[in-house]
Amino acid sequence: MPSSQLYLLLPLLLLSLLLINHPVQCDDEEDSLLKGINDYRATLNLTALVKNENAECFAEEMADQFNDQQCTNTTGANTVPGTEPTFNNYPKLLAKCHLNISNTREGMIMPACVPNLVASQLLSNFTESQYSEYLNDTKYTGIGIGTEDNWMVVVLTTSTPGGSFATYNAASLVSKTSLIYYLLFLLISFFFFL
Ligand SMILES: *[C@@H]1O[C@H](CO)[C@@H](O)[C@H](O)[C@H]1NC(C)=O
Ligand SMILES: *[C@@H]1O[C@H](CO)[C@@H](O)[C@H](O)[C@H]1NC(C)=O
Ligand SMILES: *[C@@H]1O[C@H](CO)[C@@H](O)[C@H](O)[C@H]1NC(C)=O
Ligand SMILES: *[C@@H]1O[C@H](CO)[C@@H](O)[C@H](O)[C@H]1NC(C)=O
Ligand SMILES: CC(=O)N[C@H]1CO[C@H](CO)[C@@H](O)[C@@H]1O
């Protein structure tokens, strides 16, 4: 194999390692919140919420908007159902996740801020606040969770088209997972032909 091809593949190796490592950071908090929410729903005899990747994408984008914002500053954390949060770049955030407002309108977006994301406080932020009304609701079937600093954004989805969080052009959306497989495939081919 000519060495020029080797130079092409090395950055891909580094990139795939980065992609594999990056999302792991906040998964513990997100998984423990998801478990807490589903345990809470179990006590109410409600079905467990299923992870929805598109809602998770949107939750991450929403959480990014809060980045360094203090917990006391709730700018953008307006979540009256059926209304759009007060970020003026909301349509842009939807577009980033290939989502159309007509498939997200019936979903629920719930931001919460807890210094250092202390797990027990975070759970009660959702189960013992006005948010419990939505967690108590049988109409929600899916969930996506995003984290940034002290902010956690929970997005609930429905099984109706209006809250499905279905992407409008699923074929063009290369998920992180498939990208990783693609890069691994490249790597394996590389070593195979070496
Ligand atoms: C949940 O279901 C169990 C068994 O059917 C029942 O005993 C319990 O009262 C139910 N709890 C609620 C909150 O509905
Ligand atoms: C609150 O956050 C918004 C958005 O990040 C920012 O524009 C605003 O200046 C902040 N307000 C305070 C009081 O920190
Ligand atoms: C969103 O859905 C509406 C109604 O189905 C459609 O008119 C609009 O073009 C869609 N927007 C995008 C970006 O796909
Ligand atoms: C949700 O259900 C719990 C347990 O039954 C109850 O304590 C809480 O008040 C309910 N929340 C709302 C907003 O009705
Ligand atoms: C949305 C919400 O309930 N936020 C609360 C989360 O918990 C912190 C600390 O316990 C409160 O300060 C927030 O108001």
From TrEMBL:
Residues 30-156 form the Uncharacterized GPI-anchored protein At5g19230-like domain. This is Uncharacterized GPI-anchored protein At5g19230-like domain-containing protein. Residues 1-26 form the signal peptide. It holds the Pfam family At5g19230. Keywords: Membrane, Signal, Transmembrane, Transmembrane helix. InterPro entries: At5g19230-like, At5g19230_dom. The chain crosses the membrane at residues 173-193.
